[in-house]
């Protein structure tokens, strides 16, 4: 199987360098991972945006981020177990669950930063601000990282894709924040 091209970066982005160089990650699985990555980051972004200095100081903000990431991942795994079909182009349930891990890991860095705020290693405002920025930066870098993993030079197109994705992610997170918090 040939290496995927740089076209359709976001739908072909694999999770590890070894998977792309060995062409071991089919397009559908790569797309599933990117979907999980984006979905998890949007949900965590909305929770972090709803955080206040008071919720950081009492530890609630960090717990809400962990709860959001873990419960969303658990719900997704439950849906996979119930709906998994062998006609899914040979993707096993285990592979499908692995491709969903970015949902669970999306809250890792924001949680660490919010815990640092809870422990007074960072001010609560800084903890929230850096947590928000870390998620936005992950969105912005997605196009460039995909290009790198594909063995291609980074271009302004990749940067613009990442910026567009970050803007779209912030808008969707804002909608979720307004409607649910």
Written description of the protein model:
This protein is an all-alpha fold and 181 residues long. It contains 10 helices and no strands. The protein is globular and about 50 Å long. It starts with 8 loop residues before the first helix and ends with a helix. The N terminus is likely disordered.
Low-pLDDT residue spans = 1-17, 19-23
So what's the oligomer here?
A: single chain
Distance between the termini: 47 Å
Q: Which bin fits the share of residues in helices?
A: over 70%
Mean pLDDT comes to 81
Structural class: mainly alpha
Strands, total number: 0
Q: What gyration radius follows from the Cα positions, in whole Å? A: 17 Å
| Overall morphology | globular
Number of discrete helical segments: 10
State which percent range the strand residues make up. Answer: under 5%
Largest sheet: none
Helix/strand order, N-terminal first: HHHHHHHHHH
Offer a few descriptive terms.
mainly alpha, disordered N terminus, single chain, 0% strand, 181 residues, 10 helices
Show the helix and strand layout.
Elements: H1 9-12, H2 17-21, H3 27-49, H4 53-57, H5 60-83, H6 93-99, H7 101-105, H8 108-118, H9 124-149, H10 156-180
Helix pairs in contact: 3-5, 3-6, 3-9, 3-10, 5-8, 8-9, 9-10
């Amino acid at each position: 199987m040939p290496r995927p091209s740089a076209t359709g970066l976001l739908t072909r982005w694999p999770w590890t360098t070894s998977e792309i160089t060995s062409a071991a990650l089919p397009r559908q699985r790569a797309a599933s991972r990117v979907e999980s990555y984006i979905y998890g980051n949007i949900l965590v972004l909305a929770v972090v945006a709803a955080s206040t200095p008071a919720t950081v100081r009492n530890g609630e903000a960090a717990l809400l981020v962990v709860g959001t990431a873990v419960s969303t991942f658990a719900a997704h795994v439950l849906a996979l177990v119930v709906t998994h079909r062998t006609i899914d182009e040979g993707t096993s349930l285990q592979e499908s669950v692995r491709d969903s891990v970015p949902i669970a890991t999306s809250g890792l860095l924001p949680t660490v930063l919010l815990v640092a705020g809870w422990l007074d290693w960072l001010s609560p405002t800084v903890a929230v601000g850096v947590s928000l920025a870390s998620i936005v930066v992950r969105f912005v870098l997605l196009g460039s990282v995909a290009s790198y993993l594909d063995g291609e030079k980074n271009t302004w197109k990749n940067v613009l894709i990442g910026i567009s994705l970050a803007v779209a992610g912030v808008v969707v997170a804002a909608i979720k924040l307004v409607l649910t918090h």
